[in-house]
Amino acid sequence: MNFTGNEELLARVINEQKGRYIVETTTGPRSALVKGKMHYEAFSRMDYPAVGDWVILRDVATTDEVIIDEILPRYSKITRKVAGLKTDVQIVATNVTKVFIVVSAEEPLNARKLERYLAAVWDNGASPFIVFSKADLAENSEQIKQDAELIAFGVPVFLWSAETMDGKEEILEHIDTEDTIVLIGSSGVGKSTLINALLEADIQKTGAVRAEDKRGRHTTTHRELLLLPTGGVIIDTPGMRELQLWAEDDQSLSGSFNDISTLFEQCRFADCSHKTEPGCAVLSALENGTLENSRWQSYLKLQRELAYAERKQNARLASEEKKRWKKVTQKRKKDKY
Ligand SMILES: Nc1nc2c(ncn2[C@@H]2O[C@H](COP(=O)(O)OP(=O)(O)OP(=O)(O)O)[C@@H](O)[C@H]2O)c(=O)[nH]1
Ligand SMILES: [Zn+2]
């Protein structure tokens, strides 16, 4: 990326609260809002900035809140499904390169859970790492590490203890300057403790951020994207904390429509479209009333929405990337930066 002479237009989102953002610029944190057009064009929450996003700003010279003009294409996004009237997908963090799955070495290894975590990380486009915390409390931490390595095929596995600080250097060696990392894992495994150790400071102190809002008021809020003294950043958002639920019990689409996926397995043809085929288990379940039509319709609707969102996302990423960069450079010329 070359933003020579134009650095103030490029920023990174470090906090989001109810549609208000704090972005880190080369001249410090600023309050930010999205441009009106973004609201019209937004298809879902995916189309709004999220913590970790690189964005292009407008109106940086004014004292008011800056406007987020563009979200640069995302390298990856960590998402979670939000239960509500309809299933929505919330972005927990973007542009994450590495995910540290933190598991307590004190507990017996839960292979299935670890596999689900690994799959979830890969699904989200980041590289997983496994950290066994509380190594000081484990009976045989080396054994746990070896067992995990058998499941994780080449994924680095670390033993870490906050008591002795053993393992910290090894973990830091795996974090590069351009990395954006997040930590996931069950409550109480020691994620905050590890983050604090990596930061060598209290997050409460380093995390506070003061930014100016529209009326010149200063707002103090939490920085959710934290700079590591050794390079790289850690994202720690409230959503990160709830992510474990999604990895721990299977709330995926097929999970929540278990009855329907069971029917699919009973169709005569493996590639059944469930429209006209003979021996279709869905059609016969609809006919004999064991599957309610409304439930089938909501399944189809969700399928269409997900497919549409995905198509939209993919097509846009491909074509918009070029367009965005072009726009940015044109703007730069126009503004005589
Ligand atoms: N003995 C020992 N205790 C640890 C270690 N790491 C964390 N703890 C303790 O475990 C407890 C939970 O640690 P946290 O860092 O708050 O855990 P967390 O994963 O951030 O928990 P949530 O915020 O609920 O998600 C605290 O009392 C820590 O002091 C460790 O390596 N060894
Ligand atoms: Zn069928």
From TrEMBL:
Pfam families given in the database record: RsgA_GTPase (PF03193)
Record domain EngC GTPase: where: 94-241
Biased composition (Basic residues): 324-337
EC class name: hydrolase
Entry-linked InterPro entries: G_CP_dom, P-loop_NTPase, Ribosome_biogen_GTPase_RsgA, RsgA_GTPase_dom
Residues reported in the UniProt entry to bind Zn(2+): C267, C272, H274, C280
PROSITE patterns per the UniProt record, alphabetical: ENGC_GTPASE (PS50936), G_CP (PS51721)
Annotated CDD domains: YjeQ_EngC
Binding residues annotated for GTP, in chain numbering: S133, K134, A135, D136, G185, S186, S187, G188, V189, G190, K191, S192, T193
GO cellular component: cytoplasm
Co-factor(s): Zn(2+)
Principal subcellular localization: cytoplasm
The record's free-text note on cofactor binding: Binds 1 zinc ion per subunit.
Keywords: Cytoplasm, GTP-binding, Hydrolase, Metal-binding, Nucleotide-binding, Ribosome biogenesis, RNA-binding, rRNA-binding, Zinc
GO terms classed as biological process: ribosomal small subunit biogenesis
Location of region: Disordered: 316-337
Presence of keyword Zinc: yes
Record's keyword annotation contains Lipoprotein: no
EC number: 3.6.1.-
Ranges of residues in domain CP-type G: 85-243
Compartments it resides in: Cytoplasm
Gene Ontology molecular function: any one: rRNA binding
Family (UniProt): Belongs to the TRAFAC class YlqF/YawG GTPase family. RsgA subfamily.
Chain's role: One of several proteins that assist in the late maturation steps of the functional core of the 30S ribosomal subunit. Helps release RbfA from mature subunits. May play a role in the assembly of ribosomal proteins into the subunit. Circularly permuted GTPase that catalyzes slow GTP hydrolysis, GTPase activity is stimulated by the 30S ribosomal subunit.
SUBUNIT field: Monomer. Associates with 30S ribosomal subunit, binds 16S rRNA.
Name of the protein in its database record: Small ribosomal subunit biogenesis GTPase RsgA
Organism of this sequence: Alkalihalobacillus alcalophilus ATCC 27647 = CGMCC 1.3604
Organism placement in taxonomy: Bacteria, Bacillati, Bacillota, Bacilli, Bacillales
Gene: rsgA
